[in-house]
Amino acid sequence: MPLVEITMIEGRSAEQKASLIRQVTDAVECAISAPRSAIRVALRELPAEHWAIGGLSISEIRAKDVEKKTTQ
């Protein structure tokens, strides 16, 4: 039973998540001929302040980006 785990920053719509799940399921089915009924997809959503790149949370990075745009 294939299990695909996806971790992403929260904020996407229910429709986007449903589309992601369908397309990932399609890809697994096609790539390894797994029966759809055996494919599991788990989405984990993290708040932007719980995800960091280069020592800064995504919240901090986004705030800096907004600040740059408003000062230009």
Distance between the termini: 52 Å
Which regions contain 5 or more consecutive residues with pLDDT less than 50? none
How many β-strand stretches? 4
| Pattern of helices and strands | EHEEEH
Give the overall average pLDDT.
Answer: 95
- Structural class, please? alpha+beta
Overall 3D form: elongated
Cα-atom radius of gyration: 17 Å
> What level of helicity do the residues show?
40-55%
The major sheet is characterized as:
2 strands, parallel
Strand content: 25-35%
Query: Total number of helical segments?
Result: 2
Q: Strand order, biggest sheet? A: 1-2
Q: What is the fold's blueprint, element by element?
A:
Blueprint: E1 3-9, H1 14-32, E2 40-46, E3 52-53, E4 56-57, H2 58-71
What would you say this structure looks like, in words?
- The protein is an alpha+beta fold.
- It contains 2 helices and 4 strands, in the order E-H-E-E-E-H.
- It has helices at 14-32, 58-71; strands spanning 3-9, 40-46, 52-53, 56-57.
- The strands form 2 sheets. It has a two-stranded parallel sheet. Strands 3-4 form a two-stranded antiparallel ribbon.
- Strand 1 (3-9), helix 1 (14-32) and strand 2 (40-46) form a beta-alpha-beta unit.
- The longest helix is centred in the N-terminal third of the chain and has 19 residues, at 14-32.
